[in-house]
Amino acid sequence: MDGEILKVIICSGTACFVMGGSELLLLEDELPAAWRARVAVEAAPCLGSCKDRSCGRAPFAKVGDEGLAGATMPALLALIGRKLGETNGA
Amino acid sequence: MSGPTFVELGHYQVRKRGQGADGDAFLSRKASDGRIISALSDGLGSGVKAGVLATLTASMAVKFVSEDIPIRRAAGIIMKTLPVCSERRISYATFTIVDIDSQDTVKVVEYDNPAYILIRERTQVEPIKGEIRVTRSGRGRPARGAVGREAIMRYSEFRARPGDRLVFFSDGVTQAGMGTRAHPLGWGAPAVQAYALSLVEDKPDISARELARRMVQEAEAVDAYAPKDDISCAVVYFRRPRRLLVMTGPSVDPARDAEMAAIFDRYEGRRLLCGGTTAAIVARELGRTVKIVLERVVRDVPPASVMEGADLVTEGIITLGKAAELLERGEAAVRAERGPAARAAELFLDSDHIDFVVGTKINEAHQDPSMPVELEIRRNIVKRVAATLRERYLKEVELRFM
User: Fold this and answer.
1) Residue pLDDT, tens place only, B339-369
2) B6-239: which CATH architecture?
3) Chain A positions in Cβ-Cβ contact with residue B303 (cut-off 8 Å)
4) Interface contact flag, A42 B280, Cβ < 8 Å
5) pTM attached to this predicted model
6) What are B116-153's pLDDT values in tens digits?
7) DSSP per residue over B116-185, as a string?
8) Which of B276, B290, B371 sits opposite A18 (nearest CB)?
9) How many C-beta atoms lie closer than 10 Å to residue A84's C-beta?
10) Which chain A residues are within 8 Å of B313, Cβ to Cβ?
11) Cys-Cys crosslink for B104: which of B3, B86, B275, B347, Cβ 3.0 to 4.6 Å?
């Protein structure tokens, strides 16, 4: 559905920040213009995923209800794209 | 922690015009039992020689008194040690020694400096002063004619109350402007006292540092900006302490989360939360939300957040490390920097008493060898910040590990 906003949360806890999360905080600037109105970028003090090994490795992000470990800008954008596609198709 | 107040010390001085060195000396020291001892000494004459004598006197005073030699006796020893000028038959250095214990009992010994000013509730109070007489005899006294001469020191003791200010200075202040048409006999003690009172009247929360500076600058002005003597002033301000709570790190025992949140909630003073997990715990326990502010992101430190009841919420290790670095570089570095670490450092600087509550749980993810930077253990960073605050900024710091 077009009206729905996809919430992206980037963890800015210590581990995530040093493992590359600091770059992810600039996601807003990297979003394609067409997506901007449909994506809300937020940060969290700590998502808590770094304390659970089964979650994978920092940096972590969350796109909608899906967690992303070892996040990089391309991986994050790809996931957002897929999510937007999914919501579109739904 | 010392008494009911925070003792702020301020000092300022200018040297006699044309001299390359200060002839007055001011020293202060915190003894191991929490007493704060300070001494202001004015060496005879000006320049290097006066400076050496004044420093010698002030060092002896501070050292003796902090080593528990009673202030009266210490003053006596100094009097007997100080040489007397062979020609002018006056002592080489005057002094004011102030000893403040942890219950704010103040003992002052004055020798030939102008009388101190005690300001309480915007008026001047004058404690009763006793005399201490020291006969300056003894072997090897170099001064001819000085043998058997008595030196009279004034001793007073009082219990400081919150808000009290003790102002003491060298005679460069009272004698400023001497010989000028406006002040033929110098600025004079009554005028100096009136000026000190007027500064406090105008600005009731004036800091010790500013009061000392303004006193000296006014004396300098009375001296037509060409000081004819060293001018120095020290101020002790018994301030109601500005308190800051710094909570950082989760406890090793999750059962203590509620206790941490309660400490945070009940704290009387400002509150700083350093650490994502810490903030999350406090927020969860108190039913509040933490929201990151993404507008002012700086590159090297994670962004700050806002939470009801907290003056500042930051990430932990990186921010504290950066704040420690800024504090070590000095106040100017803190003021020049932006971002959460600088804001945290400013909170530290604007507080007198800082309570750290430090959770000692170690985040294993931080110990991952593939981390591009080495993350310090929280406890060590906190100790580093605490040491800097204590030693460099004379803050009262308490650490509590959970």
Assistant:
1) 999 999 999 988 989 999 999 888 877 877 7
2) 4-Layer Sandwich (3.60)
3) 12, 25, 43
4) no
5) 0.63
6) 999 999 899 999 999 988 776 544 444 444 445 677 88
7) PEEEETTEEE----EEEEEE---TT---TT-TT-EEEEEEEEEE--TT-EEEEE-HHHHTTTTTSSS-TT
8) B371
9) 20
10) 45
11) B3
CB contact under 8 A, A14 and B318: yes
Could you give the ipTM of this predicted complex?
0.83
Question: What tokens does B29 get?
Answer: 């020291």
Displacement of CA B35 from its chain's centroid (Å): 12
Question: Within chain B, which residue ranges are assigned CATH 3.60.40.10?
Answer: 6-239
- pLDDT tens digits, B250-269: 999 999 999 999 999 999 99
Closest Cα in chain A to B368: A15
Distance, CA of A18 to chain centre? 16
- Cβ of B366 within 8 Å of Cβ of A13? The answer is no
Contact B294 A48 (CB under 8 A): no
pLDDT at B278: 94
For residue A74, say if its preceding peptide bond is cis, omega within 30 degrees of 0.
no
Tell if the CB–CB gap between A18 and B318 is shorter than 8 Å.
Answer: yes
Interface list for chain B against chain A, based on CB atoms closer than 8 Å: 275-277, 279-280, 290, 292, 294, 297, 299, 302-303, 305, 313, 315-318, 363-366, 368, 371-373, 375
Which chain B residues are within 8 Å of A70, Cβ to Cβ? none
Q: Report the range of poorest mean pLDDT among B65-69, B106-110, B180-184, B293-297.
A: B293-297
Give the bridge partners for B156, in sequence order.
B108
Sheet containing B150-159, strands listed edge to edge, beginning at the edge strand earlier in sequence: B24-30, B36-43, B93-100, B105-111, B150-159, B130-135
What's the pLDDT score for residue B100? 94
Q: Which domains does chain A have, with CATH numbers?
A: 6-84 (3.40.30.10)
Q: Does A13 touch chain B (CB under 8 A)?
A: yes
Mean pLDDT of B228-245: 93
Q: Which of A13, A19, A57 comes nearest B315 by C-beta? A: A13
Q: What is the pLDDT of residues B184-209, one digit of tens each?
A: 999 999 999 999 999 999 999 898 98
Q: Which of B248, B252, B281, B297 to mutate to test the interface with A (most CBs of A within 10 A)?
A: B297
